[in-house]
Design brief:
Strand content: 25-35%
Oligomer: single chain
Largest sheet: 7 strands, mixed
Number of helices: 9
Number of strands: 15
Order of helices and strands: EHEEEEHEHEHEHEHEEEHEHEEH
Bound molecules: ribose-5-phosphate
Shape: globular
Length: 310
């Protein structure tokens, strides 16, 4: 078996370090330079020849910078005769651009998948893509993990005797149902319509939430627009309490502070994206053990799906 070589981009050094610690492998050094003309140059400072190279880069803000960095790293690994180039992308930012729902727009999720393959990526390991079709945008194998196991383990410590899981939209209802099944809970879903990046409407909630302790589950919280709209409906329908959970806690525009200042009892996310602020209501669950286990299994040619069911 070829030796494993793990490199990290600059987007989430803490997660890279944690993954390497779980794998018990050293993190290989990377030199990142910016020229006077603003172009980037990346140098992988460790031998890649015939190695099983893993490049960890979460596509978080500034997304374009981190994307180009990842593309350059993949190209550098391929050019250095890597045996295989694996991109580990805990948060795949362009996943929400997964359909042509307006004239003359690009399907960015597909374009970025093509760019990664063109740059030399042979395999992708990622977490909770926004929609199932994004998986199909890749022409190389994709191991698509979710964080339901970690989230469910957290909520199992709570009193769930009166709880219900609520998905903000029907698109995520299947995942919410899988999460609810893990906890032995009923599930409900919002009828959500997105007007713009900053405006959503949830006309109704399908399912019974009156008097219940609600666990809202979404794939990501960005500006929090979705969650705040859902909170209004849940209050109107008489929910007793609301906790909020997601995989990707992006928390743009102070969404975390705003959410923590609301009446939600707790906010739970994973560390797929780095978090700059802390809050007493916030719990961040690590996906490093799951990603490290998947990397180890990919490297050893073992089943990944048997570990992380969808
Ligand atoms: C969109 O459909 C996703 O599932 C999330 O609901 C969305 O990304 C959350 O974004 P925001 O917090 O800005 O509403």
């Amino acid at each position: 078996m070829r030796e494993i070589a793990v490199f990290g981009g600059s987007s989430h050094p803490q997660l890279t370090a944690e993954i390497c610690a779980h794998l018990r492998v050293p993190q290989r050094p990377v030199l990142l330079k910016r020229f006077a003309n603003d172009c980037l140059e990346v140098q992988l400072q460790s031998n890649c020849r015939e190695r099983d190279v893993f490049i960890i880069q979460s596509l978080v803000r500034p997304v374009q910078e981190h994307l180009v960095e990842l593309l350059l790293m993949a190209d550098a690994a391929r050019g250095a005769s890597a045996g295989r180039v694996n991109a580990v992308i805990p948060h795949y930012a362009y996943a929400r651009s997964d359909k042509k729902d307006a004239p003359r727009i690009s399907i960015g999720g597909r374009l970025v998948a093509d760019l990664l393959v063109t740059a030399g990526v042979d395999r992708v390991l990622t977490l909770n893509l926004h929609s199932p079709q994004v998986h199909g945008f890749f022409s190389v194998p994709v191991d698509h993990l979710h964080a339901l196991r970690e989230l469910a383990a957290h909520f199992r410590q709570r009193d769930l005797s009166n709880a219900v899981v609520v998905s903000p939209d029907l698109g995520y209802a299947k995942s919410a149902a899988a999460f609810a099944r893990r906890l032995g809970l009923p599930v409900a879903a919002g009828a959500k319509e997105r007007m713009s990046d900053t405006e959503v409407r949830i006309a109704a909630i399908i399912g019974d939430v009156a008097g219940r302790d609600v666990i809202v589950l979404d794939d990501e919280i960005s500006r929090g627009t979705t969650v705040f709209e859902l909170l209004d409906r849940l209050r109107e329908q008489g929910a007793r309490s609301v906790a909020v959970a997601c995989t990707h806690g992006l928390f743009a525009d102070n969404a975390l502070d705003k959410l923590a200042a609301s009446d939600v009892t707790e906010i739970v996310c994973t560390n797929s994206a780095p978090l700059e602020t802390e809050h007493s209501k916030l719990t961040v669950l690590s996906v490093a053990p799951a990603l490290a286990e998947a990397i180890s299994r990919i490297h050893n040619g073992e089943s990944v799906s048997s570990l992380f069911d969808h």
